[in-house]
C-alpha cells in the first residue's frame, strides 16, 4: 500500500510539472527556449531528464533554442534503450583511454545531430527511454500493466510539446523493441500522429497472435505518411565464447521473417538480394526491411546501429535517404560526437 501511494504521488507530481511545461512552452518563433529544460555545453542542446514511475529513466534532447523553430513540425523520436546500456552510453562520447566501451558503439546523440543537419523542415527531438534495470523485457515481465504505462509515458511527453505541431516516431534497439511493441499492444488502433515505427534489431517480441502485424498493416493503410523500417541480421548459430546464444530459427531473424510474412499478405512486397543484405520493399518505399546475411556467424547486433543504422530508420523511404550517408557504411556522424 505504501508503495502504491508513493507511485501515485510521484505520478501526480510528474503530471502537474509537465502540465506547467506544456502551458508555459508558448510558441515564440525561431529561437524557442523550452521552459524547464537546461542547456548542455555541447551545441547548447536543451535537455530535460526525469524519472517516470515505476523505474523508468527519461531524457529529452531538443535542439538549441536558436535552432528550434515553432513554425515547423516537431518530430518526437522515442528511442528505447538496448539491454545493458545507460542513457549516457547510448548518447555516446568520443573514444578515449579509460572510457567504457559502451560509449562508442551506438552514438545516437551524434546520429541525431547528423539528422538535424539533413532534415530542415522539422525540429528533431529525441526521447531516450530506459529502465532502472537496463532491460525493457525484464521491466515488462515485472509489471502487468507495463504496456499502459508505456503509452502513458508517450502521451505525457507529447503533452510537454502541446504548444507545437508534433508527430511521434517509435524506435529502439535490442530489448528496446519491447517498448515499441508494448505501445502497439496498448492501443486498439495505432494513432495517425505516429508517423514512423522502426526496429533496430529489436523485433524479439513481434507476434502475429498479439495482432502486431494487423495493427501495423491497418496503420500503414491509413496514411500515406506512415513509414515502417526494420533492420536485423541472421542470428542463427551465433556463439559467444563457444556457447550458443541464439535459437534454431534465430531471434530477430525469425521474428522479422514473421513480419515480412504478415506484410506480404496485405501488400505487394518486392525482394532484392546481394552479398550483404536481403531487402524487402513495399508501398513505394514506405516499408523497408533489411536482413543482413551472416555466413560467418558473426555478431552484427550493435554494428547495425553504429553503421548509420539509426539514421536509416528515420530517413528510409524519404528523399533524404542515402544522402550524405550510406547504411552499413562509414560513420557519417563522426564530427558530431561530443567530447
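Q: What amino acid sequence fits the structure above?
A:
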Amino acid at each position: 500500500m505504501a508503495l502504491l501511494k508513493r507511485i501515485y504521488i510521484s505520478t501526480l507530481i510528474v503530471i502537474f510539472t509537465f502540465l506547467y511545461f506544456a502551458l508555459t512552452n508558448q510558441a515564440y518563433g525561431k529561437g524557442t527556449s523550452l521552459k524547464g529544460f537546461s542547456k548542455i555545453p555541447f551545441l547548447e542542446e536543451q535537455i530535460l531528464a526525469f524519472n517516470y514511475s515505476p523505474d523508468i529513466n527519461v531524457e529529452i534532447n531538443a535542439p538549441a533554442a536558436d535552432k528550434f523553430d515553432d513554425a515547423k513540425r516537431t518530430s518526437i523520436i522515442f528511442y528505447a534503450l538496448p539491454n545493458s546500456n545507460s542513457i549516457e552510453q547510448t548518447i555516446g562520447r568520443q573514444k578515449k583511454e579509460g572510457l567504457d566501451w559502451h560509449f562508442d558503439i551506438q552514438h545516437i546523440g551524434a546520429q541525431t545531430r547528423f539528422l538535424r543537419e539533413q532534415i530542415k523542415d522539422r525540429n528533431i527531438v529525441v526521447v531516450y527511454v530506459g529502465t532502472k534495470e537496463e532491460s525493457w523485457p525484464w521491466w515488462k515481465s515485472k509489471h502487468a500493466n507495463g504496456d499502459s504505462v508505456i503509452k502513458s509515458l508517450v502521451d505525457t511527453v507529447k503533452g510537454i510539446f502541446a504548444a507545437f505541431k508534433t508527430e511521434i516516431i517509435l524506435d529502439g534497439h535490442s530489448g528496446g523493441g519491447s517498448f515499441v511493441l508494448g505501445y502497439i499492444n496498448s492501443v486498439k488502433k495505432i494513432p495517425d500522429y505516429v508517423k514512423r515505427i522502426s526496429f533496430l534489431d529489436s523485433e524479439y517480441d513481434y507476434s502475429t497472435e498479439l495482432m502486431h502485424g494487423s495493427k501495423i498493416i491497418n496503420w500503414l493503410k491509413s496514411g500515406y505518411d506512415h513509414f515502417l523500417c526494420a533492420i536485423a541480421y541472421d542470428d542463427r548459430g551465433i556463439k559467444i565464447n563457444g556457447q550458443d546464444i541464439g535459437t534454431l530459427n534465430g531471434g530477430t531473424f525469425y521474428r522479422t521473417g514473421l513480419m515480412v510474412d504478415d506484410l506480404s499478405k496485405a501488400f505487394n512486397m518486392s525482394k532484392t538480394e546481394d552479398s550483404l543484405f536481403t531487402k524487402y520493399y513495399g508501398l513505394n518505399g514506405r516499408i523497408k526491411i533489411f536482413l543482413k546475411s551472416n555466413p560467418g556467424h558473426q555478431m552484427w547486433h550493435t554494428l547495425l546501429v553504429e553503421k548509420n543504422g539509426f539514421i536509416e530508420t528515420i530517413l528510409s523511404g524519404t528523399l533524404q535517404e542515402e544522402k550524405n550517408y550510406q547504411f552499413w557504411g562509414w560513420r557519417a556522424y563522426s564530427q558530431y560526437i561530443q567530447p
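Q: And what stands out in the fold?
A: The mean pLDDT is 91.
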